[in-house]
Amino acid sequence: MKVIPITRFICLFALIGFLSNSTQASELKTEKAILTAPPMVPPAINRDHSAKVVIKLETKEQIGSIADGVDYVFWSFGETVPGSFIRVREGDEIEFHLSNHPSSKMPHNIDLHAVTGPGGGAESSFTAPGHTSTFSFKALNPGLYIYHCATAPVGMHIANGMYGLILVEPEGGLKPVDREYYVVQGDFYTKGEFGEAGLQPFDMAKAIDEDADYVVFNGSVGSTTNENALTAKVGETVRLYVGNGGPNLVSSFHVIGEIFDTVYVEGGDLKNHNVQTTLIPAGGAAIVEFKVDVPGTFILVDHSIFRAFNKGALAMLKVEGEEQEKIFSGKQADNVYLPEGSAIQSLDNTHTAVTAKTKDEQVRFGQRVYESNCMACHQANGQGIPSAFPPLAKSDYLNANPLLGVDAIIKGLSGPIKVNNVTYNSVMPAMGLNDQDIANVITFVLNNWGNEGGQVSTEQVAARRK
Ligand code: CU
């Protein structure tokens, strides 16, 4: 075919480039960066040479959901919190275009911790609404880096969600793994308390006090749970790129039921092995790797644990595959142990509930109440734990009279009860939930896992409480 003339053409261009004293940048091939929304990660870089990489990122201010029934005006890079994942290679020359959407009320910029240069690019990228700024930098140091907006008031821009991760792969690349995911923690400060319904404005006083209402992964409570969970199969290797946008809190990142085989400490070259919990500073990152050996749902948390179960810092990795009983047996025996003096305890839980307007909303809000308060005992699919906690799935006890479930949540429950012809004799504490949460969680249970449907209202719960 006509390969030879084309080759000559390229050679001619190379020669002209050489003779005209061109800069090194112009000799590099140009490519457009692939950007991804969380929790996805762009494909590994497989070139063995530097390139000129063109990155186009947009800042935008938009309303989104931070929790069920709770909205927030997020400021974002690439319309997501965290912003788009950026992946380049050590030695690449990056031409960065930052566009600020015309609908923005504020100017924005970007400080990439991967940049060697004043402000990490902040001054050079300061961009008014309806403008685009361009600057270039060379990725000198490999590692995983946070980027964030650094426009004054800086704390407010970060608190509104303006952060993300940029990975600078080392020249030799990273070891291939089966799955890669992108997770960033952030703390949020709202006028209303956790779960208070409606559009919640940013609260500067709480932010200064570091008194977070929400601590979440990937921008909202439940962003990465249930049908949106991360997934893997038994035997696969998983790599998580974990960042912490802050603005204030340091993350004690942990995956319940897993041990990190390798942690790239603080996202740098130092590799630690066999780690349970790794600290991720605000404005920092870590790469964690582990092989998933057994099936199940593995919960990602900030192990400052009230943040996980009461403020939203909880995500899920669902692993499918064959049980590996040599590695983990599951429950092998359970016998009643009720020493003298044991009695029903009361759990206090007084947060302001979201008011559900429809049955569908009740089911949706109830699911979150379930995950925070009930799932540990009654399990993810309501199957319970044999001889300890009765099933809520296909439960004849509950379907016959859902108000018995209401009673149990209000007052606690002890003494034998029969569910699906099996007698359970365990102790359930009074949960301290408010009437709306109780109505929602019972409605959620009634409409899942093969139960018979139905609905319980806040008024019914209130009547039952009397
Ligand atoms: Cu900004």
Helix tally equals 11
What share of residues are in beta strands? 25-35%
| Amino- and carboxy-terminal Cα gap | 89 Å
> What proportion of the residues is helical, as a percent range?
10-25%
Bound molecules: copper (II) ion
Average pLDDT, to the nearest integer? 91
Backbone CA Rg: 26 Å
Strand segment count: 23
Q: Give the biggest beta sheet.
A: 6 strands, mixed
Query: What is the overall shape?
Result: globular
Which blocks of ≥5 consecutive residues have pLDDT under 50?
1-25
User: Could you say which structural class the secondary elements and strand pairing correspond to?
Assistant: alpha/beta
Record the SSE blueprint:
Layout: H1 3-19, H2 24-27, E1 30-32, E2 52-67, E3 70-77, E4 86-89, E5 93-100, E6 111-112, E7 131-138, E8 143-148, H3 154-159, E9 163-169, E10 179-188, E11 198-199, H4 204-209, E12 214-217, E13 230-233, E14 237-246, E15 251-256, E16 260-264, E17 271-275, E18 277-280, E19 284-291, E20 296-302, H5 306-310, E21 314-320, H6 359-373, H7 375-378, H8 396-400, H9 402-411, E22 417-419, E23 422-424, H10 435-446, H11 458-465
Parallel strand pairs: 1-2, 2-5, 3-11, 4-9, 10-14, 13-21
Antiparallel strand pairs: 2-3, 5-7, 6-8, 8-9, 10-12, 14-19, 15-18, 15-20, 16-17, 16-19, 20-21, 22-23
Helix pairs in contact: 6-10, 9-10, 9-11, 10-11
The structure holds copper (II) ion.
Copper (II) ion binds at residues 75, 106, 108, 149, 151, 157, 162.
